């Protein structure tokens, strides 16, 4: 991808995110463009340094959304939507998130910056959440809020 396409991608992502979750920030075009350019530079710099594309993308996303995701519900909802959607019934998603927040609370507490009201180290936070969620889904496959799965295999997030 060239620089313009990367900026457009990250701009679209942060615009959608702020429109959905942070309406006051959504109207700040300067902020959105600034964050998009920072994320693009980080992504391209990581790739140029020889990092794998998925790691480069993860780092760029951390920079793009740094400090914007301080709500446990939003973080967990986003993670479930991105990586576990095949295991949950969409109509029950909100109830499932409320249920899962309790078992994920120790991880959230580890990464929250109470002084500034946001999470730090989003990549590490999401990695630990994935580990907890994978265990929870594996142990609770018959939970009524989940889709019934016919096969019995080791649960892995959708991104793998």
Automatic annotation (TrEMBL):
<dbReference type="InterPro" id="IPR036297">
    <property type="entry name" value="PG0816-like_sf"/>
</dbReference>
<protein>
    <submittedName>
        <fullName>DUF1896 family protein</fullName>
    </submittedName>
</protein>
<dbReference type="Pfam" id="PF08989">
    <property type="entry name" value="DUF1896"/>
</dbReference>
<dbReference type="InterPro" id="IPR015082">
    <property type="entry name" value="DUF1896"/>
</dbReference>
């Amino acid at each position: 991808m060239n620089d313009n396409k990367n900026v457009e991608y990250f701009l679209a992502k942060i615009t959608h995110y702020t429109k959905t979750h942070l309406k006051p920030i959504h109207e700040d075009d300067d902020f959105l463009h600034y964050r998009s350019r920072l994320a693009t530079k980080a992504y391209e710099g990581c790739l140029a340094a020889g990092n794998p594309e998925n790691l480069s993308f993860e780092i760029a996303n951390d920079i793009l959304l740094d400090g914007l995701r301080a709500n446990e519900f939003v973080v967990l909802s986003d993670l479930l939507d991105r990586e576990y959607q095949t295991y949950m019934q969409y109509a029950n998603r909100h109830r499932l998130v409320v249920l899962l927040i309790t078992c994920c609370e120790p991880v959230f507490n580890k990464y929250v910056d109470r002084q500034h009201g946001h999470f730090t180290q989003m990549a590490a936070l999401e990695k630990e959440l994935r580990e907890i969620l994978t265990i929870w889904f594996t142990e609770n496959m018959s939970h009524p809020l989940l889709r019934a799965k016919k096969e019995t295999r080791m649960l892995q997030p959708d991104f793998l």
